[in-house]
Amino acid sequence: MKTLFVLLALAGWEPPVYTVYRAGTSIRLDGKLDEPAWFAAPDVGPFHFTWWKSGKKERSVAKLLWDDENLYIALIAEDEFISARHREHDGNIPEDDCVEIMIAPNPATPNIYFNIEWNVIGGYVDNFRPEGPKKPRAPVWDAVGVEIAGSWEGTLNNDSDRDRYWLTEVKIPLKNFAKVAARTPPKPGDTWNINLNRHGGKTNMQYSQWSPGDTPQPAFHTPHRFGRIVFSEDPSPFLEKAASLSPR
After folding, report:
1. Which of 3, 48, 96, 112 counts the highest number of beta carbons within 10 A?
2. What are the Cα distances from residue 173, in Å, to 70, 83, 145?
3. Which residues lie across from 65 on neighbouring strands?
4. CA 125, CA 36: separation in Å to the nearest integer?
5. If pLDDT is split at 50, 70 and 90, which confidence band does 3 have?
């Protein structure tokens, strides 16, 4: 059965590709996403519920931007029961509603990757896998300069009502990936392999991903299934060049 699942998952699969535009202007981390660059940037596309069995499939909308110092991530997560209790670094963030980015910053070494996972109140976990998913993580690796700002529409940790969504805005300095990336900052046209994963929460816990996995049970450490991002020289929201190249 496991072999059949893998074969079916591989059939016709192509990694999703997302163009990351330059921020163009400064991004203020406040959990509001009110800069024009965020408004104009395209989202990555739908998340896949690879291991869905039951319950409401709650949607996620994610966008990325970059500049010479940072990678920026925005995520809006539909959620009727928002859970977030852990504020500490390297705490039990997976117990909360959370989102994770996995980054393999050098296509020549796709199994060497980093992952940072966070919740809406700013708690986060960071790890580095220098030998791939089947070997232990690096004993000590702490990302430097990570900033997280969140907001939500509803009440935290209260299942007596229905919430609407939570939102996070994240800044990750590119220097964190310098030991693996071909160069930092990347040059326009450079590609990295990444994935975005969402899970957690006590009620209606769902697993969803930007690039779908190929395992019968939930597993996010599958770098062979990561999607790709392409760093663009074009700033958002000034997308005239990109628009002129799009099919009509």
Report:
1. 96
2. 4, 27, 6
3. 21, 72
4. 30
5. very low
What residues contact residue 153 under an 8 Å CB cut-off, 6+ apart? 163, 164, 165, 166
Task: Name the least confident of 1-5, 43-47, 53-57.
Answer: 1-5
SS3 for 137-169 is CCCCCCCCCCEEEEEEECCCCCCCCCCCEEEEE
Specify whether the CB–CB gap between 206 and 49 falls below 8 A.
yes
Question: Count of residues for the chain?
Answer: 248
Whether residue 48 is predicted with pLDDT greater than 60 in this model: the reply is: yes
Q: What is the DSSP letter of 97?
A: S
Query: Residue ranges per domain, the chain?
Result: 17-217
Tokens of 223: 């770098």
Find how far residue 113's CA is from the centre of its chain. 13
Distance CA 154, CA 164 (A): 6
190-232 confidence digits (pLDDT tens): 999 999 999 988 898 889 999 999 999 989 999 999 999 999 9
Report the candidate in 74, 61, 88 with the shortest Cα–Cα distance to residue 21.
74
Closest to 42 measured CA to CA, from 59, 79, 17: 17
Helix (H) or strand (E) holding 206: none
Assigned fold of 17-217: Immunoglobulin-like (2.60.40)
Strands (E), 80-140: 98-104, 113-118, 124-129
Distance CA 211, CA 225 (A): 7
Alpha helices, H only, the chain = 2-10, 36-40, 240-244
Structure-token pair, residue 31: 């959990």
